[in-house]
Design a protein that fits this description.
seven-stranded mixed beta sheet; about 325 residues; globular; alpha/beta
Length: about 325
């Protein structure tokens, strides 16, 4: 990941308190209960001994978990040195050990009774291979906790999903409509952070190859997430029209997700380690992942599934630039 990338500079739907309440209700059944508090109540009333946070960024996750008494000691890694330095500066007296690693090279040297992923796993290129190495680090009594984007890889939403987002966007009063593209161009994804949501659509399946799901709560987002991305200012005014527009967005998000009209983009789940990997796991780690990464290395980061869309988007961009 390039050092210049800062994943905290954009503004996301969960910056709105109403969206946080929506996510809490879907995750825990209570709009006032954050998933960390749910985790404490149901899985860590007695603090876990040793926890690992993967792709920790600026360290807010392990700090919040530690302060809640969810585990006595945390290990946490990230590939970006500037994030690690920031995390260390905020660690205080908490028992947190930081170290530099990426998903490709990480090999656990400890056993953990809690492993946590918050919005990091969707950056893993060799997703199955990483989870294969991660799973044995979880103790028999341990749990793996995930809160992450699990929607279409590289946010390449399907045409039906984009069509529904466009419909809802047009129905909003003009001041609340997003000016941003409803599906980011692949070219922009490659020139920004090429690992962003790189294989996100595989996360649930890949985790299921090495872990057994204890609980899973899909959080939605198929409508509201993209319409609110970097489009919060008018909603934050919280006047009557703003509250009504946001309520409409979240209602449409929930109803269309429930009907299966749009996919869930985020999921909260808790797992235990499987005693033996799923039968297809070896095919993914030994054949599929090496082949697709070799392909991407030869095509400036594009994967086979993306090449047709990339070519179509490139042609469309050139046509739009033609005079007249």
């Amino acid at each position: 990941m390039p050092e210049a990338v800062n994943h905290y500079q954009d503004r996301y739907w969960n910056d709105l308190s109403e969206v946080l309440a929506y996510l809490c209700r879907r995750a825990t059944g209570n709009p006032d209960v954050w998933w960390m508090d749910y985790l404490k109540q149901h899985y860590a009333q007695v603090p876990r001994k040793r926890a690992l946070v993967i792709g920790c960024g600026n360290g807010w996750v392990e700090r919040d978990l530690y302060d809640r008494g969810i585990a006595e000691h945390f290990d946490a890694f990230d590939v970006a040195e500037h994030y690690l330095e920031h995390a260390k500066s905020l660690r205080g007296e908490r028992s947190i050990r930081y170290f530099a690693s990426d998903f490709a090279s990480f090999v656990p040297t400890e056993r953990y009774d809690l492993i946590v992923n918050v919005a990091a796993l969707h950056h893993a290129r060799r997703l199955y291979g990483f989870l294969k190495r991660l799973a044995p680090a979880l103790t028999d009594e341990g749990i793996f906790v995930n809160w992450d984007y699990v929607g279409p890889s590289r946010n390449q939403y399907s045409r039906p999903q984009v069509r529904q987002m466009r419909e809802i966007n047009r129905r909003l009063p003009p001041r609340f409509r997003t000016p941003h593209p409803l599906r980011p161009a692949l070219k922009d994804m490659l020139t920004g952070d090429p690992t962003e949501a790189v294989h996100a659509a595989d996360i649930v399946h890949a985790v299921g190859c090495y872990f057994d799901f204890i609980a899973r709560r899909d959080l939605g987002g198929g409508i509201a997430y993209q319409l609110l991305w970097n489009n919060l200012v008018e909603f934050e005014k919280r006047d009557q029209d703003a509250r009504a527009a946001l309520a409409t967005l979240l209602r449409e998000d929930e109803e269309r997700t429930a009907r299966g009209d749009v996919p869930t983009l985020f999921s909260f789940f808790i797992c235990k380690r499987r005693h033996s990997p799923d039968r297809v796991a070896a095919w993914h780690t030994a054949i599929r992942e090496p082949l697709r990464e070799s392909f991407a290395a030869a095509t400036a980061g594009l994967y086979p599934r993306e090449l047709p869309a990339y070519l179509l988007q490139s042609v469309a961009a050139k046509v739009r630039r033609l005079p007249g």
